[in-house]
Amino acid sequence: MNDRWSAVSPKVSFIVPCYNLGHLLADCINSILAQTFQEFEILIMDDCSPDNTPEVAQSFTDVRVKHIRNEPNLGHLRNYNKGIGLAKGDYVWLISADDRLRRDHALERYVRLMEENPRVGYAICPAVHLENGQETGLAGYSVHGDHDVILSGRRFLRKLATGNSIPAASGLVRRECYEKVSVFPLDLPYAGDWYLWSIFALHYDVAYFAEPMISYRLHPLNITKRLTYREHLADNLAVISRVIHLAQEAGCSKSVVRRWQNSLPNVYARWLASEIFHDGTNSVPYEEFEELLKQRVANAHEARIMRGKVYAGVGDRLYASRDLPEALRHYHVALDVDWWAPKVWAKLILMKMGKVGMFLRDSARRTRPTVIEKSEVPTMNSATSLQAGRKQA
Description:
By secondary structure, this protein is α/β, with parallel strands linked by helices. Helices cover 49% and strands 14% of the residues. It has 2 domains: 10-222, Spore Coat Polysaccharide Biosynthesis Protein SpsA, Chain A (Alpha-Beta Complex), CATH 3.90.550; 229-367, no CATH class.
């Protein structure tokens, strides 16, 4: 069978970037080789790794597994783009060497859907966290509902405005998305995938499988763990600015553009809250925030509105961590800046009510819908449900 597929163009190209992950590489590759759908190639993109990656890669005798070693090290984004450029398949699945497919029917489901729905640019599914060889639970951020759906790209773009909710390892992408829209921008080391998911959704629909079919491994060598909060902030701000510009150029509705514009205070709030949690409530991050604000707002009125939203957002995060005195202080500051904020007043009043108010607030949050409403997306029909009846793990 392996010789047979080596003689024809593969339907899918797996891009497996690997740097210092030789000890995990075999687990990833074997999870791909075990797939019921077999028309694929695997490109192990060894970014001049100093460990035993070459030995592990060359231990596979399957002709579909190819080891490409960079000399010198290219960095992860250039390595991704090199792999995409070498891909021969109609579809590209980029999965890091530390992640793995957890269902042997995953590729079969993905490919069948993509073949039957040419308007779909990429397909995704939730991820299960994997730590020390054990699955530790579903990655909640990656869940977009409890049933399989094909999502209108621009409606899904609204969802993406709140942050990247797609595990990179879960996405099978139509190769033409990379060819016609963009590959990874080299100046976005943290948020390049969020940017691509967003701009692909400007031009294509998105398919979502409710079954979690990939494992996302948590360990000290994860790229995101090696980046600082300030690097996260810079990347996130750049993504938002670019997507807003491209959405306006593409003629997106005002509601989509506004949703992305409203994501700016959330990004600032996450950053400031992270500084508070790690360094205490010193004034330095607030001074930096004021400088950034001057660069990104047009006038004093916009600055006041943004400042109020950011302080309220920090208050929300402090409340979630049960730092109640600091949460109250930030809500008061938010109202001092912008008194016309009904939601902030409501949160403040509930906190003043003590345990009863906090219970009411927490109960309302638990019952609030967190996924895309059924009315916003078409459910896959019987021809495209693709084993939707399979039970989740």
